Every structure is written in structure tokens, then in C-alpha cells.
């Protein structure tokens, strides 16, 4: 059982990018208190900025993850020089499909995309994670990521 990353198909990209935009808008509403319309607009704006040509964006690494020919998830990273994080490579999303979770695939995907970034000359790799995503935080810490900055908020009445 060896995980491999393969170029993402256009159909898989369209399906997964749409689902990611919806989830990200939901997180923006929950975590940042944005209205539904504002959160959806911000999610769309950010993805359009970082993926202006979608799947064909030059600095984007969009890969499906497969184990024994079965797709188990996907990963999205960008090379240094991409909008928003020009100083380093950036992990935008790593997602293991629900029926394949808790088998080490998320870790394998991050390590595989890290190898690809290294081969393309990247020397630093960053990411952002919502504070309540403790499962992802634990994974990233175990892979050697450290906190560079931290934002905090609380509701006030």
C-alpha cells in the first residue's frame, strides 16, 4: 500500500474545488463571523486570486492521491511566488475522503507534495489552519510545522 500523487483531472478539480469553496465559506462564517454572502464572496475571491487559471494555474500543484489505483483524497499546494505567499511554498488543502481516513493518507500526501516542492526548488513550506481543527493541527505539528503567528478572537456582548 503506497500512496502516489497523480495530476488531478478537470472533472475531479471542478467537483473538489466547489466543495472546498463551500466548506471554506462555512468556516469563514463560523470562525470570523462573516455573513453568508460575504463569506461566499471571500472564498470565491481568494480561490480566484490563487488559482486564476484553475487547474492550469502555473504555480499550483493540484494532485489526486491514490492507493492501489483507488483515489483516497487530494492535495493543493503552491510554489513560492504565488499570490498571497510569495516567500514560500504553501499548503492550501489536504483532504482525505471520509471512507479512507485514519490510515495515514493525510501524512503521506503532505510528505509526497513536500517532496515534489523540494524537487522544484522550494526551501520553505507554510500553511494556515483554523484553530478549532485540532486533528489537522496535530498532524501538522507531527510533521514539523511550527506556529509563526497566531490570531485570537472572542465574542463580546
Can you give keywords for this protein?
21% strand; five-stranded mixed β-sheet; 157 residues; alpha+beta
Walk me through what this model shows:
The structure is a single chain. The chain is of the alpha+beta class and 157 residues long. It contains four helices and five strands; from the N terminus they run βααβββαβα. It has helices at 10-32, 36-50, 105-119, 134-142, and strands at 3-7, 60-67, 70-78, 89-96, 125-127. The protein has a five-stranded mixed sheet, sandwiched between helices. The longest helix is centred in the first third of the chain and has 23 residues, at 10-32. The protein is globular and about 50 Å long. 22% of the residues are buried.
Question: Would you summarize the structure shown here?
Answer:
By secondary structure, the chain is α+β, with helices and mostly antiparallel strands. It contains four helices and five strands; from the N terminus they run βααβββαβα. β4 (89-96), α3 (105-119) and β5 form a beta-alpha-beta unit.
Amino acid at each position: 500500500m503506497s500512496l502516489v500523487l497523480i495530476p488531478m483531472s478537470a472533472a475531479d478539480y471542478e467537483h473538489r474545488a466547489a466543495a472546498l469553496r463551500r466548506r471554506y465559506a462555512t468556516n469563514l462564517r463560523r470562525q470570523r463571523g462573516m455573513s453568508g454572502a460575504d463569506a461566499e464572496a471571500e472564498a470565491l475571491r481568494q480561490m480566484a486570486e490563487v488559482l486564476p487559471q484553475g487547474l492550469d494555474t502555473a504555480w499550483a500543484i493540484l494532485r489526486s492521491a491514490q492507493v492501489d489505483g483507488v483515489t483516497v483524497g487530494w492535495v493543493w499546494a503552491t510554489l513560492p511566488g504565488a499570490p498571497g505567499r510569495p516567500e514560500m511554498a504553501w499548503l492550501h488543502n489536504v483532504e482525505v475522503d471520509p471512507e479512507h481516513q485514519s490510515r495515514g493518507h493525510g501524512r503521506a500526501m503532505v510528505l509526497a507534495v513536500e517532496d515534489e516542492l523540494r524537487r522544484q526548488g522550494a526551501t520553505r513550506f507554510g500553511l494556515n489552519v483554523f484553530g478549532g481543527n485540532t486533528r489537522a493541527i496535530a498532524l501538522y505539528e507531527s510533521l514539523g510545522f511550527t506556529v509563526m503567528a497566531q490570531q485570537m478572537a472572542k465574542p463580546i456582548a
